[in-house]
Amino acid sequence: MDAIKPLPQVSSFSASLFSFLDDSFRDAKDLSQSPAFVSELQTEISELDQRLAGLNRQLESGLAAYSSFSDRAGGLFSGVNAKLSDLSSSTCVPRSASDGGNAGKEEETMELPSLAKEVAQVESVRAYAETALKLDTLVGDIEDAVMSSMNKNLITSRSSSFEEVRLHAIKTLKKTEEILSLVARKHPRWARLVSAVDHRVDRALAMLRPQAIADYRSLLTSLGWPPQLSTLTSPSLDSKSENVQNPLFNMAGKLKSQYCGNFHALCSLQGLQLQRKARQLGSHKVENVIFHQPLWAIEELVNPLTVASQRHFTKWSEKPEFIFALVYKITRDYVDSMDELLQPLVDEAKLAGYSCREEWVSAMVSSLSLYLVKEIFPIYVGQINEASETDLRSEAKVSWLHLIDLMISFDKRVQSLVSQSGILSLQEDGNLLRISSLSVFCDRPDWLDIWAEIELDERLVQFKAEIENDRNWTVKVQDELISTSNVYRPPIVSSLFLQHLSSIIERSKSVPAVYLRARFLKLAASPTIQKFLDSLLIRCQDAEGLTALTENNDLIKVSNSINAGHYIESVLEEWCEDVFFLEMGTGQEGPGVENFTEPSEGIFGEEFQKLETFRIEWINKLSVVVLRGFDARTREYIKNRKQWQEKKEKEWTVSRSLVGALDYLQGKTSIIEENLNKADFTAMWRSLASEIDRLFFSSILMANVKFSDDGVERFKEDMEVLYGVFRAWCVRPEGFFPKLSEGMTLLKMKEKQVKDGLSKGEKWLRENRVRYLSEAEAKKVAKSRVFSANLHLI
Question: Which parts of the sequence are annotated with region: Disordered (predicted)?
Fold first, then answer.
């Protein structure tokens, strides 16, 4: 029988042993369980002994490998030293050596480059070996720390000791990453070493991150997160609730320390992963990583809130305004704790480029967007597609637009929460996408097309009634704030149209991606502009078809339409110079979305060209109409060829047959001037003057007419009166009748001057400021002149 060993002295018991015995044997009944308890302890001791033996074997193996490696490295160094010694002895040759010694020196000099190359290779091997050994040691520490954190038998208390082990693992991971970054930058040929270390670190992180997140979730549960959602009331939507229970603010003591430690650990792990990703992608800037990774710790705060909120969402499928109100209320009520409590922890973890406020808002918006995609939009799309009757389809469109209004309003409110931090530029597409519920259209551009179609239909229905009101085409825009309205004198219908167009553009600004804004405007705004242009064209064609624009009312109608078109054209031109529209002209495309914009034309380039073409066409038609009436009234004047050889009538300063035509010309141009904008009227009268110049020049001066002295004087006075009609709009109207003016110059010349001059050719014409007539035309005009000495021959 084995001798019974005496019990140790009670005074030698440690405090932890006393605590262990007190917990295990609380009363006499516990003594009966002693055998089982002893057996359990022996089993655990046996397992620990086995693990210790395994660790010892690993240590022996590692020491043996290190010893072998050290021996090899020592041998290499010995060889290097021997070669260096040989090199030193070979270079120390006495100067009194013979010429034969000089030959030996040349031979040794030839060996120096190869020897230096070999020394460099040995140095590279040494550096590689040291780096590999250091990395192997660090990765071994990481794996041991990770395994220790996963083994509950080694760490019975998941409190300070566990936190210390995890913190040690994270620090070691950072050291390892620093070495790997240095190696990748300075020694790109060591790629296999980096790959091998990355493989082992990835395995360690694959175990460490889930465990850290699980511990973080468990800690949040013990804190009472998520908080109970308060009842949604209208007063709580306008101001922050005063009675919000925020478990993050209520933390204290050891619990707060544990939470901060867990949060810091998660941030450090995420920062480490971002650095590894940047290195592996060949970039040394974390900002250049392909995607922005949400903050893990904030996501874990939002996920349970999302689950709790969706229990309410299911009751409000027909009242989406309640859904948006609840999400905004939660976002607003807890956003301050992100700045005050969590942002310092993120900064301490050196996680650059992250704002807790922004991440909180982004995570809440993302959870809402996901719910809209899965539960809300499919219902609304189904209603649009299934509605066959007009009333049902109209109701479905109203519901859709109401949902869009809610999304736009929600985005503005949450973006104001983010902008309060003062660190976010909301003009960047990447930031807008993350804090906009309208980002749902990025993955579903077909839903954006439905929205654009509905928006277009609603605007056209409203605008149709305004187009059909004739008063809107006669009353001019009187807006002193719009400088262009005074220049183009547009009818009020153009102002009403701009209100509809501006509304579409304002709604497009809420779309968080440039290529989607361009798509929306092409589908909603461009057809609206085309509809307005069609209405202008129809009014002009109606006026032309009824009276061929011979009536003054029809001229006024066309003038007002031209004014409206030119006003819209100028406004579009001004808008397209804004950065908002210039971004769309860069030809950007989204994933799976074709380019809707020609970079050289801008977003409204096609519509702009159509408006310009319409304006030029109908300005020319106004000119042609007046010219046609003027031509009809000057036929008798043109056909009377004998009048240019008759004596001048003293009582008339202008030919009687020309008076009616001039009166018609002045009357029609006055009507057009009164109603057409100044810029287009200038283009019209200049075109008209040019056509009259060609008409009289070809019909009179080029028609083999003979001019006497009195005839030249009569023609000169007639032309002065014609010029006078246009003198109200320019100082030298004869400049717009170049052929008539130069023809008159030739007619007024003396006979000898003309004959001698024409014999000199084109040079003489240019010297006498005859630039618009060809030499043949000038000779023909000169031949039509009959001087007094030759008058009896006719």
Answer: 89-112
Domain boundary among the residues 403, 418, 443 is at 443
Report the distance separating Cα 272 and Cα 205, nearest Å.
10
Task: Give the C-alpha separation, 324 to 413, whole Å.
Answer: 11
**Is the bond into 445 cis (omega within 30 degrees of 0)?**
no
Whether residue 173 is found in the same domain as residue 140: yes
Contact predicate 578/504, CB 8 Å: no
Last residue of a domain, one of 399, 424, 443: 443
Per DSSP, 375 falls in state I
pLDDT at 497 over 80: yes
93's tokens: 């040759």
Q: Which of 426, 422, 418, 411 is nearest to 327 (CA)?
A: 411
Q: Rounded distance, CA 306 to CA 434, Å?
A: 17
* 348, pLDDT greater than 70: yes
Taking Cα atoms as reference points, which of 239, 241, 259, 240 lies closest to residue 249?
A: 259
Q: Indicate whether 314 and 431 sit together in one domain.
A: yes
Shared domain for 515 and 572, answered yes or no, is: yes
Please say whether the beta carbons of 145 and 167 come within 8 A. Answer: no
Q: What is the DSSP string of 395-415?
A: HHHHHHHHHHHHHHHHHHHHH
Residues 214 and 345 both lie in one domain: no
Q: Judge whether 333 lies within some domain.
A: yes
Q: Which pLDDT does position 422 carry in this prediction?
A: 60
- Total tally of structural domains belonging to the chain: 4
**What one-character-per-residue DSSP string does 172-229 give?**
HHHHHHHHHHHHHHH-GGGHHHHHHHHHHHHHHHHHHHHHHHHHHHHHHHHHTPSPPP
Q: How far apart are CA 497 and CA 532, in angstroms?
A: 8
Quote the DSSP letter at residue 340: I
The CA–CA distances, whole Å, from 707 to 414, 704, 768 equal 86, 10, 21
**What tens digit of pLDDT does each residue of 687-710 get?**
999 999 999 999 999 998 899 988
Considering only residues 90 and 173, tell me which one the structure prediction assigns the higher pLDDT: 173
Using DSSP's 3-state secondary structure scheme, residue 154 falls into: coil
Interatomic CA distance for residues 180 and 189, integer angstroms: 13
Same domain, 560 and 683: no
Shared domain for 780 and 648, answered yes or no, is: yes
Helices (H), 281-376: 296-313, 320-337, 343-348, 356-371
Secondary element (H or E) of residue 73: helix 34-91
Domain that holds residue 138: 120-150+161-227+252-282
Nearest CA among 411, 377, 373, 671 for reference residue 549 = 671
Between the CA of residue 627 and those of 414, 630, 689, what are the distances in Å?
63, 5, 9
Burial 20-52 (b: 16+ CB within 10 A, else e): eeeeeeeeeeeeeeeeeeeeeeeeeeeeeeeee
- Reported pTM: 0.76
Would you say residue 476 lies in a domain? yes
Read off the pLDDT of each residue in 633-639 and give the average, rounded to a whole number.
Answer: 94
Both tokens assigned to 186? 């300075």
User: Is 766 part of a structural domain of the chain?
Assistant: yes
Contact 135, 193 (CB under 8 A): yes
SS (H, E, C) 341-363: HHHHHHHHCCCCCCCHHHHHHHH
Handedness of CA 225, 231, 235, 237 (dihedral sign): positive
Q: How many CA atoms lie within 13 A of 340 on its CB side?
A: 7
**Chain centroid to CA 103:** 75
Amino acid present at 554: D
Instruction: Give the H or E element holding residue 84.
Output: helix 34-91
In sequence order, the 6+-apart residues with CB closer than 8 A to the CB of 357 are 335, 338, 339, 343, 417, 418, 420, 421
pLDDT digits (tens, 9 = 90+) for 98-122: 454 454 555 555 566 776 777 777 7
- Does one domain contain both 357 and 494? no
Handedness of CA 78, 84, 88, 91 (dihedral sign): positive
The interaxial angle of helices 320-337 and 296-313, nearest 10 deg, is 150
User: Do 329 and 424 sit in the same domain of this protein?
Assistant: yes
- The pair of three-digit structure tokens given for residue 660, joined into one six-digit string: 């009616």
